[in-house]
């Protein structure tokens, strides 16, 4: 076997043990990661080495998170290995093994699956005892040392408050992501906190609310098609946890000629969502300051490796352990604020979404 990919394949097939993989990989002294997409910083050859494991790079936002992290890591003199797991748990597990064999001193992880992520970080902590940072999601394990994620409650609150300002009262729908993920639960709870008095008074009736096992637009499309059929197209607003779900719901509305007539929101400002905002088909999207999130992850890894305490503005209790972290704030992006948003970030180009530069 001549590379880490072959070694990982042998381990997955049970032909060598995990311990054997680690020992052999370390003996190779590999100079670069070979499991999927990877990047090594060219600067600070003797700086601390950090591993950053992404679920994939397919989602629009992940390359941006990667870029923001790299910018700050370079400033801090960190070296880094960055890999995407193609949305496969076993691939993520093997890639992290490869990172460990190359001597990473801290791990930042966005898990493909939070439950599987908990098992991965607990094994890493047991085997290597390096600092572990949970990124975007809060992995439900006391093995993590720090987390960086959006204020999900705030996202839901921003969406609901904007809807109350702009949408008609009446029949509303809520499209939620996986119930088992804190991101989806907290966004939904944040929205319902704002809406509950209007639900209690009867001004708003939630005629459709579903949790989806995934974030696929097709799931939201089906929910909205069923909701429109059940209510004779009498729906005034749709609050969706995430942009893909919002776009799926929007497709169902468009098929009935209701685009631009039913208030709808998403979250993350995808190019498709921004174009829908420009056209007037989508009312708003919420954007989390991912520039800050990427910087916070790099700074936390740097501090933890040095034995220092990273800055935090919140903590969570996992298994009786208080774990510090940083809640990243979000903003409303609508047709009015979109030009300013484009100037403040490199998220999108005006010409790509139907605006003049």
From TrEMBL:
GO terms for molecular function: carbohydrate binding. The keyword GTP-binding does not apply. Belongs to the bacterial solute-binding protein 2 family. It is found in: Periplasm. This is Substrate-binding domain-containing protein. The keyword Signal applies. InterPro entries: Bact_Solute-Bind_Prot2, Peripla_BP_I, SBP_2_dom, TAT_signal, TAT_signal_bac_arc. Pfam families: Peripla_BP_4 (PF13407). One of its GO terms (cellular component) is outer membrane-bounded periplasmic space. Keywords: Signal. Its main location: periplasm. Residues 50-308 form the Periplasmic binding protein domain.
